[in-house]
Amino acid sequence: MIKKIIVASSKGGVGKTTVALGIASALTMRGKRALLCDLDFENRSLDLFMGIENLPLHNLADVAYDRATPEKAVLRNGKGLSFVPAPTGHENETDALKGYLPASIIYALKAVIDYEEPDFVIFDTSAGLCVPVLLAKNFVGSLAVTVASHQPASCRGAERAASVLLENGARDASLVITQFDSFASLRDARSGLLQIIDSSSAKLLGVVPFDKELMISHERGVMAPADSPSSAAFKNIAARLCSENVKLFSGVRGIKKKNIF
Asked: What is the DSSP string of 36-90?
């Protein structure tokens, strides 16, 4: 059965695209086939993070309106990762929804998924819950992965996203914390993990530490080094998505584990 993951948050700038790409890449390293769908209509950036901004000739809108087949719209890296770009030319999410969703883009997504037959589908969405809710309703039983940075307002946004998506068809909701600063937690300058977990109804799927190597890699359009803290964190998340039990910070270097909870 194809597992579908909706990466969402009602807040912007929390790292949804980073999480979507990190999860997809880590799954392929485990031998899984992953289809990564860019549904951030306003600020699509997955192609930039992947270093392929000059490669896409077609996108989901072309499939939706029969201007291109799924085969032509999907890009592959030869290592199990497939990618389909978001439509372009929209000034805001409302404009995009009026022009495409729900019927046409949902049709295109289903066509691409049927063509690719991946093990996992990861939907990267924009800030807000319009697109995630439509995905939850049309792909009933999906897993909602809500994303929060190491900030109270962000955690509240992730909690709301989890609740709304569960009400609209998601099977389960998990939380991924990004940009986690363990040193600040040790100094009591920022919330510890238990405080963050308590502020969300979603169970913790993983913690991605603040990682300069990841930021630099995104700017260069390449993946973070395999031994970087963020890469190790995403490997742990992928293992949990494959029903394996791994320790929260297994293999993650640079984390001061004492008292970070």
From this structure: EEEE-SSS--HHHHHT-TT-----HHHHHTTSS-HHHH-EE-SSSEEEEPPP---
Please report whether residue 157 resides in a domain: yes
pLDDT in tens, the chain (261 residues): 899 999 998 888 889 999 999 999 999 999 999 999 999 877 888 999 999 988 989 999 899 889 999 999 999 998 899 999 988 765 455 555 555 556 888 999 999 999 999 999 999 998 889 889 999 999 999 999 999 987 777 888 888 899 999 999 999 999 999 988 754 544 454 556 667 666 666 789 999 988 888 888 888 888 888 889 999 999 999 999 999 999 988 988 867 655 565
CATH code assigned at 218: 3.40.50.300
Q: Does residue 155 lie in a domain region?
A: yes
pTM here?
Answer: 0.90
SS (H, E, C) 185-236: HHCCCCCCHHHHHHCCCCEEEEEEECCHHHHHHHHHCCCCCCCCHHHHHHHH
Full domain range(s) for residue 16: 3-241
Q: Is residue 123 part of a domain?
A: yes
* Number of structural domains found in the chain: 1
In a domain, 260, yes or no: no
